[in-house]
Every structure is written in structure tokens, then in C-alpha cells.
Amino acid sequence: MTTDGTIRVEHLSKSFGPVRAVDDLSFQVTPGRVTGFLGPNGAGKTTTLRMLLGLVRPTSGTATIGGLTYGQIHRPLRTVGAALEAASFHPGRTALDHLRLYTPQVGVPDTRAGEVLELVGLSAAARRRVGGFSLGMRQRLALATTLLGDPRVLLLDEPANGLDPEGIRWLRGFLRMLAAEGRTVLVSSHVLSEVEQTVDDVVIIARGRLAHASSLPDLARMARVRVRAVSPDAAGLATLVERASWTRTDAGDPRVAELWDVDAATVGAAAFAAGVELHELTSRDAGLEGLFLQLVGAVETAGVAA
Amino acid sequence: MRAALLTEYRKLVTTRLWWILLLCMAVYMAFLAAVLGWGITQGGGMAGPGPGGGEDDLVLAPDAVVRAVYTIAVTFGYVFPLLVGALAVASEFRHQTITPTLLAEPRRTLLLSAKLVSAGIVGLVYGIVGTLASVGAGAAVLTLLDQPTFLDQASTWRTIALSVLALALWAVVGVGFGSVLTNQVAVIVVVLAFTQFVEPVLRFVLALTSWGADVAAYLPGAAGEAVSGGSFYSETGVGSLLEWWQGALVLVAYGVGLAAIGRVTTFRRDIT
Prior knowledge:
heterodimer, A: about 300 residues, alpha/beta, Rossmann fold, 2 domains, six-stranded mixed sheet, four-stranded antiparallel sheet, B: about 270 residues, mainly alpha, 13 helices, about 0% strand
């Protein structure tokens, strides 16, 4: 491994006719970590990955891997393994034949094809035609293809699609292992919860623009806690909120208070001290998914305003 | 380039298409050669008992007969290597394998070159099988009918070898065509329509005009027949042909020219 496996996307833009699919996007992905590349469908994730892989020409900006564009990398499959769609197979080819197409170009012996099938747990289906594969098996075969060249950078587009819960658990462990070996692992997804337990870093985009990039713990710290308090005594509740100067959002009912940045214990203690009767007190942890939607929503409304 | 060639070769032989088409070609060519061998030699005899009775019919010199029969694959069977070449490109777009293909080899000109060369090699197989099927069936029928087979003459074997070359070049033309037209269904429809209908009609019509015959010789089908040095059409008087090497150059020009167009259109576009 000669080149550094850092992915750098700098001021990357791509327009398809009048549609700005990717808009001045910049972020960096570091080796040794699993990075989640997140955004709703149509946010520009796949287009960004395709620009990184030299399949789509950027309108402006650069996307490099270890300082090189994909086309500049010698024997690219040895440095970068990418799986873009689970459908990129000829249905009439067997899994083994599919992998053997690429072994000459990777520069590894044909036996490597059997090895990677073993790695992804597909050995039993090696001589079956891909046309009869389930989506989960195709995902595994796509992953096996990326591993042929033992690359230091892995780019996986929605790799959990079509996997059953057991498959997802397996994928998690597998990606963690790859990152632990010092590889750069970029995994795209349209739901944060799907990769929440796998990723170290997140890059969130919406409408082709960067919404957020940080480590997962840093993102988690941004999540605001919320408490829902219900009391038959609307006036007492209002006084309580006012005295503690909590942020309250209107729930449409004076007996219901949605309170921000305060936990249930604090609200409960204050209500008890003030003698306000509570019928309900719930922690409403919006969680990472809520935060994700909020971050995405912020970019999307900004886009509408602009 | 070696790796890209090996990859392209494996792509061609790891699906069922190649041997199904090859089998169809062998059976079809054997059938046509047998029918033609019987038809041409017996055509005169059917019209009347004497040699004079057949003068209005198709009467060819015996060596012209074998040329027409042995090269029947070049006249009617080139659609098979042409399709194999064209589908080598079009099926990549049909099944979206163009994405992993370009990930493995981002140099798009080199990729197309590897496809042209590998198709030429597989085309040789089609050429050998198609030609041998015609020669085998044709010679068997001629022998049964007590007609000379000319298989002991070097010129006959030269014709056979050139027939193989012509069919191999057709696969190269196919790659060029497939890189311009990447829709698999459209490829099949256009190839069948052009080879089975458009070009034969064009050649027939052009042959009626004074200037058209020269143009007709440069049509791909006529160029292919020129390579094998004679064909059913030319032996029966429909148009004239180029020299064999001119025909080969014209076919190569079609293949490389179309591939060049494909390189600046299909292969310049974003792969989404």
C-alpha cells in the first residue's frame, strides 16, 4: 500500500441539464474509520461516488483518492474497491465466472475469486448463475468483487439494501474489521439508523450540498432532548414552564407541553415541588434519526428559500 | 492491454450467447450450403434434359459453384459474428456491467480497443466454424451428386481461409456498431433489418444504375464478400466486388470508424 487512502472531495459540483445534482460539495474521508455517507434519496450520493470513480465527469471541483483522480490510479482495483449497484451482473454468468472477469485486470491469480467468495460467505453458490441470486446474495457478490484487489479504500453504495437482519449484522462486523485493518471505508445510506451502529464518522448531504460532517459522537451531542409533559392544570403548567424558562413548543393543547433541552427528571422534580399534577411525563429523544432529518430539512428549506 | 484482452475474452465466453449463436450459425450455414450446392448444380438439369435446355437458368462454371457454396457464410452468415461483436458492447449497457468494467479499466479507448481485438479473435472461431460447416455440407452434397468439390486445389483453400478472415472482421464491425448503438434490442433489430433486407435491396438497386455499382462495392456486405473473393451475389451477376484486401480494409474501416464514433459519443458520456 503505497498511497494514502484519504478521500478528498473539494468544491465538487455536477449539473445534469438544469438540475444541480451536486452543489459545491467538500468533505474528507479518513483511513481506518467507517464513514457513513448519508442523505435522502436523490441527495446526490451516487452521483458523488460516480464522480469519485471517474464514471461521471464533474462540472467543477475535484474528487480524489490518495491525491489522485480515479483515472490516474494504476490498476485501480488494487487501491479502490467500489460497489455501486447490486444489479451490475450479467444474469447468465456464474458468481465465480463474474469474479474471474476481473482477476486479470486486478493482477491476482484466478484462485483469488474463490477466496473472496469464501470471505463473503458465498462459496456454496460459486457455480450458480447470478440470475437466480437473491438481492442479499447479489450484495455479497458485489462486496466480494470489491475485495478482489485487497484494496485500501472501499466505497459501498447502500450495501445493506436487501440484506436480512442477520446479513446486516454480518456486514457491520465485516466493515468494522476492514476499517480496523486501516482501510478507508465509505458506506452510503439513506437512513442513519441503518449504519448508526457501524460508522465512526458521518457526512450528511441534502440537495447536493453538505448538511453536516463530523464524528458520530459529535453528531450525537447535537441531538436535543425533549420532554412531553401533560397536566390537567394548564395554568399551573404554564407557570411552571415560565419560572424555569424552558423552551416550549406549542402542542395545540394548553395542557400539553413539549419542552426542549431538559430531561424528564428535572421536569418531574420541578412539577412535584410546585405541586402541579402530571398525567404524563415522557422523554422524547428525537435521537440521531430525528437529528438527521432535521439537518437534512434545514438544507432543503434553505434550498427552497434560495 | 493483455489483461484487458483476457477480461474481454472471458466476458465473451462465460455466457451462453456465444455458443448458441455459433450453433445456430453452423446449422444454418450447413443447411444453406447443402441447398445451394444442390440447387445450383441441378438447376440446369431441372429445366430440360439437354445442356441447352438450361441456358436461361442459373448456370455457373464448376469452380464458381464451389466458391458460391463454400463462402455462403460470408454472404448470409455474417450476421452471427456481427451480433456477437455488437452485443459484446450493448449487453454491458443492458446489464449495467459497464460500471464495473470501467472501474476495472478506466482508460476507455483501451477498453474499446480490447473489445475490438477480442471480438476479432472470437470472430475467427465463428469464421472457422461457419466456413467449415458450409464447406462440409456443401462438399458432401456435391460429392453425392458426382460434382467436383475442388477441395484438392490450393485456390479453393485460399477462398476458404479468406472466408474465415471475412467473418472474423465482421465481429470487429459488430463492436464498432454496438458502441454507437447500445440498446440491445435496437442492435438486434437494426442488424437483422440491415443485413437481411436493406443492404441486399440497396445492392440490387444500385447495380441497376451506372454509378451505383461502384458505390455498392463499398457497402459492408459487399466488402465482406470481396474478402472471400466471390459470393452467391457476385457469381450470379449482382454487382461487382473489390479486391480481397480492399474489402478487408473497408470492413476494418467500418469497425474502427464506428468504434471511433462510439468513443466520442457513448464512451464519452457520463455512466450513470
